[in-house]
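Encode chain A's predicted structure.
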Amino acid sequence: MEAVAKALLAHQDLRIVTNNLHVASILSEAPGCQVIVAGGEIRPLDHGIVGELTVDFIRQFKMDIGLIGISGIEPDGSLRDFDYREVQVAKAIMAQSRQVWLGADQSKFKRTAIIQLAHLRDIDLLCTDAAPTDNMSALLAEGGVECVVATG
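Encoded structure for chain A:
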């Protein structure tokens, strides 16, 4: 998500709602952008903000694009994570978004995790750093999901 936030610095006049302090810090430098930070419990590892307060906060907004991350995408297309609280926040973001974009680098392909968030068919766009495997490409095509592979 931090890489995506850095890419967004080239854009102006965005309104961003985030549950990540690193993302908020990066985007606070973007010209004309308004950054709104959710309240809740801060996870020490990645400075993500989670918990019921965060979910309630997210539910107040209707967003054009909800950008989520994930710990792993299993071979069947399941999107999974390790933190139940983060999954609840991501579900709220998905429910409040007109489009859902998933940012996942190639290390997430075929990585397993314990808690299911959603399925690839539930997103609109996958942003990644490498071409997906044949199996994942087929799942993306079946779900009508666009895939963007970032370069450089």
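The mean pLDDT is 94.
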